Amino acid sequence: MVQVIEGNWPIVAGVVVLVLLVAWWLFSRATKAPARERRPDVLDEGAAPAQRNQALIDAAPAAAAAYAIPPAAGTLGGVAEVIAAAVQEETAAASLDERPADAPDLPADDLTRIKGLGPKLSTLLAGLGVTRFAQIAAWTDADLAAIDAKLGSFAGRPARDQWVEQARLLAAGDTAGYESRFGKL
């Protein structure tokens, strides 16, 4: 055995060095703990600020009362009724109450064609009674503020993505105008 080692000493030395390098690498990785970043939390300040913050969240915002649209009499109620009335004035179409009882409801538009308005927002708007491009096209600044207050984490999207301008072009059927301004449908 000693003769085999003496004859192949460069190979044995290389294996020993390789084993030592692997052992050093494994032990050096195990001793280094990943650096953890500690971010402050609202609970670090104590219970009083947390309770104050929860009270602010639970309280109705005073600014929301300034943007509240009084509910109008009708089947849709609230913001949707006001929007429907504005659409009636701008498009000179008959109101929902003046249609014959046997007339079918207008089919909902695919609101997801508006850039920045995805399926979740489309569902949320449908829950608010907004299903047509003409309704969005008739929104005023006050309507935008009222709708914006009800969009939760999507607040600010209607103004930022220019929903009213997009809806006006789509409601008018101006595909070329839409595509020249907002890109391909």
Automatic annotation (TrEMBL):
Keywords: Membrane, Transmembrane, Transmembrane helix. It comes from the Bacteria. The keyword Transmembrane helix applies. This is Uncharacterized protein. The chain crosses the membrane at residues 7-27. It comes from Novosphingobium aerophilum.
